[in-house]
Specification:
It contains 9 helices and 12 strands. With 336 residues, it is an alpha+beta fold. The longest helix is centred in the middle third of the chain and has 17 residues, at 214-230. It binds zinc ion. Zinc ion binds next to helix 8.
């Protein structure tokens, strides 16, 4: 079969890096791994019922004033537009407006109809309609595309905080992971992404001590090293420029692993995931999901709203290689 050229290449974002070099970011759908996103980014459509009325455009202001005065606020539904345009019922031409009034559980349909009547609201038709609208605001384009047919939604794509990787970054990530996987055990590395310097590398030694998981061993190594270099004073903040805006903050001492990347062959357990929160790591890359994993499998500790630090997690890095290399190892099923 002749090659077709129907696959048009998407334009790639080009951004100048600090050295003035132009980097090309790889679009998310082409990453060779996945981000372990918070549940709200992955949820499907959930709806709630609201009342709407049909009005002629010139009646809209009155109806909105009525709603403001007599009906409960639409708190939590700010993502839904207040008005949508619809074709006049039972006609093929012309349009009227459908105005969102209030949540269905606030009062009965008859009560609302009576209230509209008592206040002499001019409606296109006296019936109040019940419509299902998306319960949550769409957080990404995928959700927006899937949900906005139900009711017009406000959504502004903001990719400024999205993780960005260049081809070069991918090579670096794969190099670290390939090395760890070649050790054929649960292994971890902590890396300073500014310099690509490996600050600590450790393997799981829980046979010697039940708490000596690979992540904990690595954090300990960083702590020992920093203590050696900085004594009790701690490392000065130098990264996370988005969090550090003024001089005052830039003088602060960094938490143990602020701004560092963690590579680990297996998905960390809850204890290790929390240790990574406390030491303020920036990103975690792991290859193989685990039964007791807490960064995607059972929990998503890295994105838990009650915690005061969040880090990005990327899973399935070189997963095929990981599974192959560790296929015969009892570690695959080990509770991590
Ligand atoms: Zn652990």
């Amino acid at each position: 079969m002749a090659e077709t050229n129907d696959k048009t290449e998407k334009p790639k974002t080009k951004v100048k890096n600090v050295k003035g070099k132009t980097d090309e970011f790889i679009p998310r759908e082409e990453w060779p791994f996945e981000e372990a996103l918070a549940d709200e980014y992955e949820r499907g459509l959930e709806t709630m019922d609201v009342y709407t009325v049909y009005v002629e455009p010139k009646q809209t202001n009155n109806v909105l004033k009525f709603a403001q005065k007599y009906l409960a606020s639409l708190e939590g539904l700010e993502h839904c537009k207040r008005i949508r345009r619809i074709t006049k019922p039972e006609t093929d031409s012309g349009f009227i407006l459908e105005v969102l009034m209030c949540l269905k559980d606030k009062l009965s349909q008859t009560e609302l109809e009576q209230l509209l009547l008592n206040n002499e609201q001019q409606l296109y038709e006296p019936t109040v309609h019940v419509v299902s609208v998306p319960r949550y605001a769409p957080l990404n384009r995928q959700q927006y595309e899937a949900w906005h047919h139900l009711w017009p939604l406000s959504y502004r794509e903001d990719t400024r905080l999205d993780p960005k990787f260049t081809k070069e970054d991918m090579t670096v990530i794969h190099d670290h992971m390939r090395h760890l996987l070649s050790l054929s055990t649960v292994a971890c590395r902590i890396v300073d992404p500014d310099t690509n310097q490996v600050l600590a590398e450790g393997i799981d030694t829980r046979k010697e001590h039940p708490l000596h998981h690979a992540v904990i061993n690595c954090i300990n190594l960083v702590a020992l090293k920093e203590n050696e270099v900085y004594g009790g004073r701690g490392r000065q903040m130098k990264r996370t420029a988005n969090e550090m805006t003024d001089n005052e903050q830039s003088k602060k001492t960094a938490y143990l692993c602020t701004g560092y990347d963690v590579y680990i062959t297996h998905e960390p357990c809850a204890m290790c995931a929390m240790a990574l929160v406390h030491s303020r790591v920036s990103r975690v890359f792991y290859s193989i999901p685990s039964k007791t994993g807490s960064l995607g499998t059972n929990y998503k500790i890295h994105s838990h709203s009650s915690l005061n630090h969040h880090y990005r997690v990327f899973k399935h890095v070189l997963l095929k290689e990981g599974n192959l290399l560790l296929l015969d190892s009892s570690l695959v099923d080990q509770e991590l």
